């Protein structure tokens, strides 16, 4: 990833900074929110988090973001988002929030490099796909190991892939992969799928889909690219090598909201609850993108949610007299 975050500061900043709009996260939702808040002349500060550009930046080519008929690199799109937000005055800080106090305004946000007091807060910290945590997985990510069929499926035209997981995501993404791959082998740790009946029927009816039951991957094998997976039958204990070109892992996502626990309402899976206006349970705090969206998880939807969150923050600050009335952002 080649994101050039020019605002790499923090070290020389005063310890506590008071800002009108603080955005947490540098994926499409965060950078869109920063753009809108900047155009409203609210001088937003965005803390990038650890993954610059969010999950989108890990994607080799994004072909479903409107406006780029030939596709665009995930990292490149992140840079463009950043450049546009900075052009209007957003300040991008390479820093990560570690805790928040949302019990009163201004909200207090503690980050690794300093502390912020924020009149409004937009949380766009995203979600991370769960990993298998087996040897070879990290090393071969982007070289055959993927967590996104929509992003990477195209690269596996006429190739063999395996999909890990037995939930709706595994089957839905596996079925999507049958458009390209010559075969899609679902490896599931039990002998029954968790996915809904309709998806199960579609998967069983699809000639390209195969199933390996009661099995887990113990290693992803390959040097420059994935060549095989080592699988272990959890009933018999037998291990074997299954040749494959790709490994798609869909064993759930975890929203990056740990540091917000007890501060803002979340659902049973720790996604931040919002209404249609991106408002959270705390007035003045908004959430957008995958930290609040277990459903769509697309660059275009996250960017839209980020823009909406910023527009609501602008209205909130205008109402509370902390922002001069601004024209349409
Ligand atoms: P999920 O329902 O939590 O399923 C995760 C799957 O991964 C399960 O089959 C689980 O096995 C398996 N798994 C978990 N950890 C594993 C590990 N360490 N090693 C191997 N396998 C592991 O996650 P999801 O499929 O992403 O779905 C998340 C939510 O979104 C669900 O509520 C789902 O209904 C919804 N969703 C809906 C749709 C749709 O309606 N079209 C599409 C996608 C997602 P076990 O079954 O043994 O636990």
Oligomer: single chain
First-last Cα distance: 30 Å
Low-confidence stretches: 1-10
Percent of residues in helices comes to: 10-25%
What portion of the residues fall into strands of 2 or more residues? 25-35%
CATH class term of the largest domain: Alpha Beta
**Mind telling me the CATH superfamily name of the largest domain?**
FAD/NAD(P)-binding domain
Number of alpha- plus pi-helical segments = 6
Overall number of structural domains: 2
CATH architecture of the largest domain: 3-Layer(bba) Sandwich
Structural descriptors:
6 helices; FAD/NAD(P)-binding domain; single chain; five-stranded parallel beta sheet; 329 residues; binds NADP nicotinamide-adenine-dinucleotide phosphate; alpha/beta; elongated; seven-stranded mixed beta sheet; 2 domains
Outline of this structure?
By secondary structure, this protein is an alpha/beta fold.
Textual characterization of the structure:
The protein is built from six helices and 17 strands. The protein is α/β, with parallel strands linked by helices and 329 residues long. It folds into two domains: 180 residues, FAD/NAD(P)-binding domain (3-Layer(bba) Sandwich), CATH 3.50.50.60; 119 residues, FAD/NAD(P)-binding domain (3-Layer(bba) Sandwich). The strands form four sheets. Strands 1, 2, 3, 4, 5, 6 and 17 form a seven-stranded mixed sheet that branches. A five-stranded parallel sheet has the order 8-15-9-10-11. Helix 4 packs parallel to helix 5. Bound molecules: NADP nicotinamide-adenine-dinucleotide phosphate. The site of NADP nicotinamide-adenine-dinucleotide phosphate (NAP) has 17 residues, from helix 4.
């Amino acid at each position: 990833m080649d994101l050039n975050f020019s605002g790499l500061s923090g070290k020389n900043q005063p310890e506590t900074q008071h800002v009108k709009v603080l955005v947490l996260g540098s994926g499409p939702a965060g950078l869109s929110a920063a753009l809108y808040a900047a155009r409203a002349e609210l001088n937003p500060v965005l803390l990038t988090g650890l993954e610059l550009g969010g999950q989108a930046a890990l994607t080799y080519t994004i072909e479903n973001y409107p406006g780029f008929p030939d596709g665009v690199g995930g990292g490149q799109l992140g840079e463009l988002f950043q450049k546009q937000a900075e052009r209007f005055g957003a300040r991008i800080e390479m820093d990560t929030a570690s805790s928040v106090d949302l019990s009163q305004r201004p909200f207090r946000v503690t980050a690794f490099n300093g502390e912020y007091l924020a009149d409004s807060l937009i949380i766009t910290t995203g979600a991370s796909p769960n990993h298998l945590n087996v040897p070879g997985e990290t090393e071969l990510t982007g070289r055959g190991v993927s967590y996104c069929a929509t992003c990477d499926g195209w690269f596996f035209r006429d190739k063999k892939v395996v999909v890990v997981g037995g939930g709706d995501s595994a089957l839905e993404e596996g079925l999507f992969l049958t458009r390209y791959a010559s075969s899609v082998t679902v490896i599931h740790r039990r002998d029954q799928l968790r996915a809904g009946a309709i998806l199960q029927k579609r998967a069983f009816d699809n000639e390209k889909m195969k199933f390996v039951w009661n099995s887990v991957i113990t290693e992803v094998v390959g040097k420059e690219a994935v060549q095989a997976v080592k699988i272990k039958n959890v009933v018999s204990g037998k291990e074997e090598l299954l040749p494959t070109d790709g490994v798609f892992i869909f064993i759930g996502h975890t929203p990056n909201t740990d540091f917000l626990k007890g501060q803002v309402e979340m659902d049973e899976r720790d996604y931040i609850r919002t209404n249609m206006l991106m408002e959270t349970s705390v007035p003045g705090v908004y959430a957008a993108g995958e930290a609040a969206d277990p459903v769509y998880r697309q660059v275009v939807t996250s960017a839209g949610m980020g823009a909406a969150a910023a527009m609501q923050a602008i209205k909130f600050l205008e109402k509370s007299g902390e922002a001069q009335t601004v024209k349409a952002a």
